[in-house]
Amino acid sequence: MEGFSSKFSSSTNSGSASSSSATNIFPFDGDYYDHQHHHQNDGQLINGMMTTMMMGQQERLNQRQRLHLVPVVRSQPLLIDDKSNNNNDYLSCNYNHHHHQNDDDKSNDGAELKKKKKGIAALEKKIRKHRYAFQTRSQVDILDDGYRWRKYGQKAVKNNKFPRSYYRCTHQGCNVKKQVQRLTKDEGVVVTTYEGIHSHPIEKSTDNFEHILTQLQIYTSL
DNA sequence: CGGGTTTGACCGGCGC
DNA sequence: GCGCCGGTCAAACCCG
Ligand SMILES: [Zn+2]
């Protein structure tokens, strides 16, 4: 996966024409995240997630340049670092296996099951993965990143005008989550935060450039 | 019926 | 403890 970071940074030059932060081109433009300073597992994590959106990125850049379209995306993807960095070693652990409850599990009252679930949740919390956020200027909240998501919650967050939505990847056994919320400060911007690594390939192609464009606010000038 | 969303309840962590 | 807050569950609901 070493091709990833280089490929990614290679798109830097095409973008940063101006220093104005508001006119960064497309997500993932410019510096992203220094892989060197992080655990290798983190790199994989990123790749696992980012390939979803990075597929055909260069292609799209070229295409955009041809079209002279400039999607306005304020996007310095943020690494939301967890305080417990020393747990990185566990990131590669595979917790995606199904928790098949054995048939011999006769203590089958809901309480037991719930307890079990709690334990697992606690465990997974302990080894919480890094999260990565992207800011995208867009009218629609749900940006198609090629994976299928099921919404499992929505919450009003303090000091925020807009609610935050919680999604989980619907693929069986895949535990990736994401949160989506619109900024109070600039309600044209949607922040998407990913957590975890997909245990499966992407479900559908993301190289539909037209479709991506429809989700973004764009300038047709220049 | 099989998948998704909605939405209030619930829960654990944290600061006081 | 207690109350707040963010995150999750799950029953109800919706829809092709
Ligand atoms: Zn997934």
Automatic annotation (TrEMBL):
Residues 1-21, 90-116 are annotated as: Disordered. InterPro entries: WRKY_dom, WRKY_dom_sf, WRKY_plant. Its main location: nucleus. It is found in: Nucleus. One of its GO terms (cellular component) is nucleus. Keywords: DNA-binding, Nucleus, Transcription, Transcription regulation. Residues 101-113 have a biased composition (Basic and acidic residues). The keyword RNA-binding does not apply. SMART domains: WRKY. One of its GO terms (molecular function) is DNA-binding transcription factor activity. Residues 138-203 form the WRKY domain. Pfam families: WRKY. This is WRKY domain-containing protein.
